[in-house]
Design brief:
Layout: E1 12-16, H1 23-34, E2 37-40, H2 41-51, H3 54-65, H4 71-82, E3 91-94, H5 100-112, E4 119-124, H6 127-135, E5 137-140, E6 146-148, E7 168-169, H7 176-190, H8 192-200, E8 203-207, H9 212-227
Parallel strand pairs: 1-3, 1-4, 2-3, 4-8
Antiparallel strand pairs: 5-6, 5-7
Helix pairs in contact: 1-9, 2-3
Bound molecules: adenosine-5'-diphosphate (2 copies) and zinc ion (ZN).
Length: 228
């Protein structure tokens, strides 16, 4: 025995990008390939809304309008989720942080537990593509697999490839009227995080305009390097 312990710290990856960029799609693939756990604050908030908790009731109107839920609520929900033991395998943060306050709070939280960000990857897509992606998006209510009317249709229409469920759902906020608000919130409050992580030396950018498989390949190469 050398007496020297090698500490393997759980990986922390951040996926940045506008609504519809493919964060959820890619996070699920990374979860399967790298054994990391996807943490989507959007999913956690939708669960809180469905459960009718106090946070959920407050978040609902903001989400429907396409704004950002308060940092207090989002941070509380994320901290709770990070207490669960599965996150010790490492996490992919999908849709968090979305404001500078959230990014600073995350840095503080990680520092307290001796962790650090392995990489913050920005999935770059233009506004027109983002609108197309959101317009055709639907999700399996059984297992959460994401689909698209044109770009990722299930093999058998209406049936989930992964779990066979026929319960397909469309998000209430994936409507043309709300997309403009979400995009504005992204540009005003989230896009500045690209410089934030660039200054930290943690930023990676990928062209997310390509096909799902190509983006996954580019992202995997980055993740392999970042978690090594
Ligand atoms: P986000 O989590 O960033 O909002 P999603 O992963 O839900 O985005 O993707 C938005 C929609 O676009 C989904 O319907 C998904 O199937 C589809 N999609 C994701 N990545 C791509 C891609 N590279 N090319 C075409 N469609 C994509
Ligand atoms: P998308 O990436 O497709 O816009 P999400 O599922 O990540 O969708 O988020 C849906 C909604 O949930 C957002 O429009 C916002 O209202 C809220 N939300 C999710 N994550 C955050 C966050 N980190 N901070 C504030 N609001 C959030
Ligand atoms: Zn399914």
């Amino acid at each position: 025995m050398s007496g020297v312990e090698t500490m393997t710290r759980p990986a922390v990856l951040i996926l940045l990008g506008p609504p519809g960029a493919g964060k959820g799609t890619q996070a699920r693939m990374l979860q399967d390939h790298f054994g990391l756990v996807q943490l989507s604050t959007g999913d956690l908030l939708r669960a809180a809304v469905a459960a009718g908790t106090e946070a959920g009731r407050e978040a609902k109107a903001v989400m429907t309008a396409g704004g950002l839920v308060s940092d207090e609520i989002v941070l509380a929900i994320l901290k709770d989720r990070l207490q669960e033991p599965d996150t010790a395998q490492g996490v992919i943060l999908d849709g968090f942080p979305r404001t500078t306050v959230q990014a600073q709070a995350l840095d503080k939280l990680l520092a307290e537990s001796g962790q650090r960000i392995n990489a913050a990857v920005s999935l770059d897509v233009d506004d027109a593509e983002m609108v197309n992606r959101i317009a055709g998006r639907f999700t399996c209510g059984g297992c959460g697999e994401g689909y698209h009317d044109t770009f990722k249709a299930p093999t058998v229409a209406g049936v989930c490839d992964k779990c066979g469920s026929t319960d397909m759902v469309r998000r209430a906020d994936d409507k043309a009227e709300t997309v403009g608000q979400r995009l504005a919130a992204y540009h005003a409050q989230t896009a500045p995080l690209i410089s934030y992580y660039e200054e930290q030396g943690n930023l990676q950018r990928i062209d997310a305009m390509g096909e799902i498989g190509q983006v996954a390949k580019d992202l995997s190469a980055i993740v392999k390097e970042a978690v090594a």
